[in-house]
């Protein structure tokens, strides 16, 4: 065989190896980017949920400062009653 044909094949093989290695690295990076973006969207959804929950809890805390609402809340959530009072719970 001619020396130039061997050199050409060696360079062709090296180019193929570099191309395959580059393709593998790019695919792994793309997969990582996709995973990170998915995780970011999940965390943003969680953030929105927690912010809504904080708003609800803040409103509840403001309401609980008043005795009328506090008594109503205790009766509804904890089935509390006054002395000498009967409560009937009807569940649907």
In terms of DSSP E residues, the strand content is: under 5%
Number of DSSP-assigned strands: 0
The percent of residues in helical segments reads: over 70%
Ends distance? 91 Å
Radius of gyration: 34 Å
**What composes the largest sheet?**
none
Secondary structure topology:
Elements: H1 3-63, H2 67-78
How would you describe this structure to a colleague?
This protein is mainly α and 92 residues long. It has helices spanning 3-63, 67-78. The longest helix has 61 residues, at 3-63. The N and C termini lie far apart (91 Å). The model has no long low-confidence stretch (mean pLDDT 90).
Question: What are the main properties of this structure?
Answer:
92 residues, mainly alpha, 2 helices, rod-shaped
Question: Short summary of the structure?
Answer:
The chain is built from two helices and no strands. With 92 residues, it is an all-alpha fold. The longest helix is centred in the middle third of the chain and has 61 residues, at 3-63.
